[in-house]
Amino acid sequence: MYKYDVYDHQIVNERVAQYRDQVRRRLSDELTEDEFRPLRLQNGLYMQIHAYMLRIAVPYGMVSSAQMRMFAHIARKYDRGYGHFTTRQNLQFNWIKLEETPDILADLATVEMHGIQTSGNCIRNITSDEYAGVAADEIIDPRPYAEILRQWSTFHPEFAFLPRKFKIAINGAAEDRAAIAVHDIGLSVLKNEQGEIGFRVLVGGGTARTPIIASEICGFLPWQHVLTYIESIMRVYNQYGRRDNMYKSRIKILVKAVGIEEFRRQVEADWADIKNGPGTLTVEELNRVAAYFTAPAYEKLPANDPGVASYKTENKAFANWLQRNVKPHKIPGYAVVVLSLKRTGVAPGDASAEQMDVVADLADRFSFGELRVTHKQNLVLADVKQSDLVSLWKESAEHGMASPNIGLLTDIICCPGADFCTLAFARSIPLAKMIAERFDNLDFLHDIGEIELNMSGCVNACGHNHVGHIGVIGVDKKDGGEWYQVSVGGAQGNDAAIGKIIGPSFNFQQMPEVIDRLLQVYMRERLEEELFIDTARRIGMTPFKEYVYATPINAEDAVDKNAYGFINKPDNYTVQRKSRF
Amino acid sequence: MIIKNKAVVSDDWIVLRLSENETPESVTVPAGKIIVPLKVWQAQRAKLQSRAELGVWLASNERPEELKGEVDKFNVIAVDFPKFADGRGYSIAYNLRARLGYVGELRAIGDVLRDQLFYMQRVGFDAFAPRPDKNIHDALKGLTDFSETYQTSSDQKLPLFRRVKRDGIATVGSVHE
């Protein structure tokens, strides 16, 4: 993976010094909270319900074992011994003291990490395919471009105070695993008929209040032009994006308002001046960065390890794990392993300091010292020898990271929700736990098969609910209660779609039964081997809607309320919506 | 006092802001060194263009192209930041320098604070009027927060990768031809 040179180190170290002085000025009241807020946000520091939350950038999800050990250190020294991996491949610590944040960032800088632009109305951490470099369907490894874009966007002077946050995702494989259609800019690296490398550029996708699938602004952009072309998109957006209403200020609203043709015309007009200018990417720089992403020293191995095959027949649990958590690798004899952070009873995406240390060791021993964070909030060891799979399974199972549920109902994508976040209308983590416990039967889960259940605590949709096969979102009914809207038929990837809302919202206690009824409709209607999403597409939303609302769902006694109490919160919960951020 | 060319200097330009009952056509522009709103310049061009010293300022929702072909008529062009989170002024400055060829004093006015100065300087501002309740000598420090930058802008025509030899790791052959 990429290693900082002297310039990268210098820029990040100067950032730490700048931020340390900003914190000093805040603590001495030279800066008001209003003045300090955008400064801390652009270093990833949010004020949450209980404490500050620090979001650390994991560029395109790649993390080394040394970096993972630093996460464990920070969890122990500055937090409560755990961290939360997010849907944007980042890591969040939830119990942070403002006074200690400069030291945390200084610690991170020693392992080439930071919280730069993980919040605020700027270009955020760029996300990519968690299987980049090892996926069999990869056309071009997107990571060199992601790193080049990371550097270009870092402290871009013109685009630090955009109308709203700005997210770029980049994919380089046949299958889109980076959800590029629901990003402000989605890039897909490809080759044209002449074999030249370039990008398909999408713009104006997004979720939240106005879910929209992105439009194509350029079908093939030669790779040399990626920085200047994006600069022009940013400049048009910075000048013309709405700033009067934060819910209408994302680029998707601008693109929708003027239409993609007019938006393209404006971008191309701006670009005409800088195309082929000095901002154009050079072969030398691309090669310099790409050299960090070349294949590790793979051994020559048989395509299938006989040990795995025989152990599989004698151990059902291992066979289940192999089926769900191990993915094919492009090199014979190797495998991609997903370590599940979705153990029943634990908040999706949470990892303890001990688990972080364990996965760092596993990465060193089994996967060339590298890990990836997935947008589904799991961890990946991308280069595991098949002959190591049994050992890896045993050790990861000992530490609660071998739940054989990748891609299944309990592999829930989930935002932090009202337990932590001031924006949320409703809790998401306890709901995820309640659903996971209700359906904690492996045979049932495997029978249901691949399905994506995505949950968010509010319209900001950090849990990607709109593109979940089943989407759940906390809604505001002004009565202080927790209400959830349910959608069916959303999808990410090549056939990205926004789910359709099935009807009026449900309360917390009703939700497991709602999910149960949706699954019953699927099991009743499915054709042989048909996945939930395919059934949903074929039969439409109506059968689901009719069955879910056919008979009343008990709103009180369905579950023991006390079993799903607030995390670290007193009894008698009411939704506390404080000021934003 | 303002910051100009990386130093705190005295300054006697006055920024004219219209009050609610004034219109660009009817407002009386006082004598002396006045920075007038774009709309006043456009409404009273005939009267104003004979002045020996004149400045103009753009609001964040105004377009720099409105000054196309006229930028040389001003001793100073200012861009107003109604609040520091309004980032349109950065693109206005970039366009004034890169597209309209303005080479004179470009001044940031309004909600101008120390921690924006580094970015403002990069997009082409060379003068800054920090908010009066802030210590201007403290604000000056904002210009030197970083000693290196990655990307091009008005202050730096070459990106880092074209300017310096960056360290890499040795590889066999090239990844792209």
- Helicity range of the residues of chain A? 25-40%
Cα(first) to Cα(last) distance of chain A is 33 Å
Strand order of the largest sheet of chain B: 2-1-8-7-6-5-4-3
Structural Rg of chain A: 23 Å
In CATH, the architecture of chain B is 3-Layer(aba) Sandwich
Shape by Cα distribution of chain B: globular
Number of domains of chain B: 1
CATH topology of the largest domain in chain A: Sulfite Reductase Hemoprotein, domain 1
Helix percent of chain B reads 10-25%
- Approximate strand percentage of chain B: 15-25%
- Proper CATH architecture of the largest domain in chain A: 2-Layer Sandwich
Notes on the structure:
The complex is a heterodimer of chains A (581) and B (177). Chain A has 581 residues and is α+β, with helices and mostly antiparallel strands. Chain A folds into four domains: 6-109, Sulfite Reductase Hemoprotein, domain 2; 134-290, Sulfite Reductase Hemoprotein, domain 1 (2-Layer Sandwich), CATH 3.30.413; 306-398, Sulfite Reductase Hemoprotein, domain 2 (Alpha-Beta Complex), CATH 3.90.480.20; 413-564, Sulfite Reductase Hemoprotein, domain 1 (2-Layer Sandwich), CATH 3.30.413.10. Chain A has helices spanning 6-27, 33-41, 65-78, 101-109, 143-153, 226-240, 251-258, 260-274, 283-290, 306-314, 316-325, 353-366, 389-398, 429-438, 442-448, 511-525, 532-539, 542-548; strands at 45-47, 52-56, 62-64, 82-85, 91-96, 127-128, 168-171, 185-191, 197-203, 215-222, 326-328, 334-339, 350-352, 370-373, 379-385, 413-414, 453-456, 470-475, 483-488, 500-501, 506-507. In chain A, strands 16, 17, 18, 19, 20 and 21 form a six-stranded mixed beta sheet that branches. In chain A, a hairpin with a 5-residue loop joins β11 (326-328) and β12 (334-339). In chain A, α1 (6-27) packs antiparallel against α4. The model of chain A is unreliable at 558-581 (pLDDT under 50). Chain B is α/β, with parallel strands linked by helices. Chain B has one domain (2-163): 3-Layer(aba) Sandwich (Rossmann fold), CATH 3.40.50. Helix content of chain B is 21%, strand content 17%. Chain B has six helices and eight strands; from the N terminus they run ββββααββαβαβαα. Chain B has helices at residues 38-43, 45-48, 88-98, 117-123, 136-140, 160-163, and strands at 2-4, 7-9, 14-15, 34-37, 55-58, 76-81, 105-110, 127-128. In chain B, β7 (105-110), α4 and β8 (127-128) form a beta-alpha-beta unit. At the A-B interface, α1, α2, α5, α6 and α9 of A face α3, α4 and α6 of B.
